[in-house]
Every structure is written in C-alpha cells, then in structure tokens.
Amino acid sequence: MAPSRYDSIYKSSLLAGKVVLVTGGGTGIGRCIAHELASLSCTVVIAARRLSPLLKTQEEIGAAGYEGRCDVLHPLDIRDHEQCKKAIQDVVRKWGRLDGLVNNAGGQFPSPAEKISPKGWRSVVDLNLTGTFFMAQAAYEGYMKENGGSIVNVIVDMWNGWYWVAHSAAARAGVYNLTRTLAQEWTPHSGVRINCVAPGAIIGAGQSNYPPSVQKKVIESFSYQNPSGRLGTESEVSSAIVFLLTPGASYINGACINVDGGQSIRQGPIFDTVFSPDSKLPIYHGFGSPSPDDDLGMGPGFRELFGRMAAIKPPGDAEKGKSNL
Questions:
Q1: Disulfide: which of 124, 138, 229, 239 matches 167 by Cβ 3.0-4.6 Å?
Q2: What is the mean pLDDT of residues 251-275?
Q3: Would you say domain 19-265 falls under CATH 3.40.50.720?
C-alpha cells in the first residue's frame, strides 16, 4: 500500500520543468523534500551512499502519481570530491539542467567532546562541512556558474553550542559561514543564490539514529523545551527549503531560516517561567495522518508523541477534537 500523496502548501505547477538534486534523499527530511518537490511538478534527483532507501522513496513517489518525477543517483559519498563532480555531470547529462541543489546529507553521533576520537572527529566534519563544500563547488563549476540556480544547505540549531555533539556543531557552524562567503563570491558573477535552513528538534526518522536513552530524553522532556512547546515536523522543514528554491525567494541570499520553534532564542527557565508541554501551536504534516505504511521511521514512543502533536487545536477552535492535519 502506497503512502498518502504529499499535500504541499504551494501550487502544484510551481517547479514545473525544474531539476533539483537532493543529497541524503532516501530517508527522513530528504525523503520528505523529495515528495514535496515531485508534488510540485519538479524532476527530483535523490542521491546517497545506500541504494535501498533511494529505491523505496522513488517507488513511493512513482506510486503517488505526482506531476513530477523522481530519479535515483547512486552511489554518492559526498566526502569524495570526484564522486561529487561526477554526480553533477550525470544529472546535467541526463536532464540537461540543474536548477537547485539541496545539501541535506549529513550526520553525527552523540559523545562528550573529550571522548571524540580523531577518526570520529574527521568523519563528522568531512561529512557535514567538507561534503557540503564539495557538492556546492561541483554544482557551481559543473552548471550553475553559467546558468544560475539555488543552493540550500541544511544545518542545525547550533547557535548556542550543541551539547554532546561538538564535532557536528563545529562543522555546521562552518557551513553557515561558508554559505555567507559563497553568496558574496558567487552570486555577483553567476546569479546563484546560496542559503541555509537550520532545523531544530524534528520528529521523524532522524531520531532513530540516536541511542534509546537519548530518544527517551527527547520524548519525555526535550520535546517541549522551546517557546512553541513541541517538536517540529519534517514537512515544516521541507516547506522552508522548497521556498528558498522558488522565485519568491529571489532576494534572499546568504541567509538562514531557523525552523526550530524558537529554540535558538531559548534562554532556559527565567524566574518561575518554564516551557509547557501543552503546546498551542498546530503542526503541519504534508502526508496527512500517518498510517502503518507511512510511519516516518518512528518508534512507538515517537509515534505516540506525534499523535499528541497532531491533536493540537489552535486556541478558540470551536470544533473540539478536530485534527489539524
């Protein structure tokens, strides 16, 4: 049984004729972006190191019957400079253009800073910082320098440091500065725009990458420790990324959109004020109500939390029990 069709907030013809490459496009936020782009009549090319998630997402998109389509590029290790160059060449050779690049691939593992080995440090920095640069450089040199385009780099909420993830926090901060630098170097000569999106704590497949002890803390306490009182959804991140790929964002360059519920401005409890788990902010989830066939890779605890988030009604909503999906 195929998952629900993606119901984007944007008009279905928005990206007709465009080609966008999404790294890490087989799972989590990347999968969600791929669905939304295809629903907007875009040709989306998804790439990653593992083939099976890419094929699964491609199959989902094909079954959904969108106006757009999904192509798979494999393998792609963004830490390999030659693979990055070849990936761009392959996309341009097959589709004749490259209008957008979403640098979504990345990852990390939790560890106290003093316990991070040299190998672990280099692995995470290479993946999140060096790989992002290699892909951006390949897209620029391989097509966008002469034709323009849009690059969106996905980072994280690392503005006040990132406890137990020093390697990734340092790398993502580097990507933010890299984005601002490239916007100054490249845009005046090419018309390429380069921006960032910084997700906060997002509920979805990405949480399954962390140990059960970390997942438990997220569910029980961290899930509401921001001014919005809840976690974000993959769709809420995807909407911001897609916007930056559209003509509506034509004068946004070298910027970062924080999709974090206000987490980046959080200062913790002030006097007797604490954030409440009783959120008043409804969620947006492009797939509608999750079914067993579209569970976003969540474990039982996160599915229960997602159900509570999906039941949030805006203040004053007279229709009690009405879903916000």
A1: 124
A2: 84
A3: yes
